[in-house]
Design a protein that fits this description.
It is a single chain. The longest helix is centred in the C-terminal third of the chain and has 31 residues, at 252-282. Helix content is 51%, strand content 12%. The protein starts with a helix and ends in a 5-residue tail after the last helix. Strand 3 (89-95), helix 4 and strand 4 form a beta-alpha-beta unit. It has an eight-stranded mixed beta sheet, with helices on both faces. The protein has 390 residues and is of the alpha/beta class. 45% of the residues are buried. Helix 7 (177-189) packs parallel to helix 13 (316-325), helix 8 (207-227) crosses helix 10 (252-282) and helix 9 packs across helix 10 (252-282).
């Protein structure tokens, strides 16, 4: 009898663990993309491709923005996205990437995917997005603790609202959203344990390093941003990306110009909009930032001090140690080998240090930053990943 129970225990453990990993079919699907993505051979082009594919579709989100009352913000509230099913379903909590907000950019497409695979959806805007900056978080001495509490409060609101319709709670985070997402997941493991699993897309390994790398690739593409004409950029996009899932060969000039669209026109302009929101909310003084270090230096002293001091809480590894301590908690990561945010850092070392398996950490050799999410099969990848019931 004891032997029988032992077999059952290990069988259950194996199944539970498998549910937290990338399935073999998903790993195979991503590997199949590599020959198709052969011409996405620079980090900037891969980043543009993924963003373009996610921005292009017409979206039909089922829910909308609602104000969550909160004493954590000077405005006394923060707008969050909520959509809900009429029956019991999983809750997908999505934490967008840098500057991301539910109502614009890349988030609406992700929301469409999550709603289409049959879930309730909750989205809190990224901490650097204009609505979040306008709400003006009251950081005090510990910005990390506040960000975790924002997510706790948003989930509590959703839990109460859904009641018996609430199924498993899946946390999905992208880019900068993974920094707070990982911190929250580690907190959850030692507190209410409400989260069922954690999925990270394109996480920066160390935020201070990511900031320096981001500024470098932006500076490298500033000349292209100035010399590339709008007609050339439009023609290059139409010729290579509008009617094709994957591009053919792109000229060297085309690669530089398209990368400049996302890196300079996209990220720098977003930083400047967030700075303008900060000025509006606080009447702050300072020059409009032209990069990420300039932005953080001027935006919030609380955040800049953490970056300048290289606070260990800005490293994914700090939170991963706590997350992996709970061996029953499923985690999966998808990233790109050429993600420019992690230049100078080693995923192999991270993998060994934290005991990640090949099924937990999926690294594709292309895609730049967050580009791999643009694969045509992404919705089905999500559907298959979260198909083990509610």
């Amino acid at each position: 009898m004891t032997k029988f129970l032992t077999v059952i225990f290990f069988a259950f453990t194996a199944v539970s663990t498998a549910h937290g990993q990338w399935k073999p079919s998903i790993i195979a699907t991503m590997k199949e993309q590599t020959p198709k993505a052969i011409h996405l051979d620079t980090p900037g082009l891969g980043t543009f491709w993924g963003g373009f594919r996610r921005y292009l579709p017409i979206t039909h989100n089922d829910g909308g923005l609602e104000s969550l009352p909160s004493k954590l913000f000077a405005r006394g509230k923060i707008d969050i996205y909520i959509s809900e099913k009429k029956t019991k379903a999983p809750l997908y909590v999505f934490m967008p990437g840098i500057f991301g907000q539910p109502s614009r950019g890349l988030s609406p497409e992700m929301i469409d995917h999550l709603e289409a695979i049959g879930g309730h959806v909750l989205v809190v805007p990224n901490l650097l997005s204009t609505p979040y900056v306008l709400a003006h978080p009251q950081y005090g001495e510990d910005p990390v603790a506040l960000e975790i509490q924002v997510m706790e409060d948003a989930l509590s609101y959703m839990t109460k609202r859904l009641g018996k319709r609430l199924g498993r709670i899946h946390l999905i985070a992208e880019s900068l959203g993974t920094a707070i997402g990982s911190a929250w997941a580690a907190h959850d493991r030692t507190h209410q344990r409400r989260l069922y699993d954690l999925t990270l897309f394109s996480p920066p390994l160390e935020l201070p390093v990511a900031m320096v790398n981001f500024d470098k690739i932006i500076d490298d593409h500033r000349p292209a941003a100035k010399r590339c004409s709008s007609p050339f950029k439009l023609w290059t996009m139409v010729q290579n990306f509008v009617f094709h899932d994957y591009p053919g060969p792109v000229s060297a000039k085309g690669k530089e110009c398209l990368a400049a669209i996302v890196l300079v026109d996209g990220f720098v302009n977003s930083a400047q909009r967030s700075w303008e929101a900060h000025v509006k909310a606080t009447q702050a003084k300072g020059q409009e930032p032209n990069g990420f270090e300039a932005f953080f230096r001027q935006y919030r002293t609380e955040l800049w001090t953490m970056i300048e001091n290289k606070d260990e809480r800005l490293n994914l590894g700090h939170w991963m140690s706590g997350i992996k301590a709970d061996k029953s908690f499923p985690i999966r990561i998808m990233t790109s080998a050429d993600d420019f945010l992690n230049v100078g850092l080693d995923w192999a070392v991270f993998k060994t240090t934290h005991g990640l398996t090949d099924e937990e950490l999926l690294i594709v050799p292309w895609g730049g930053h967050s580009g791999a999410i643009g694969v045509p099969e992404f919705r089905e990848i999500l559907r298959e990943t979260f198909s083990e019931g509610v």
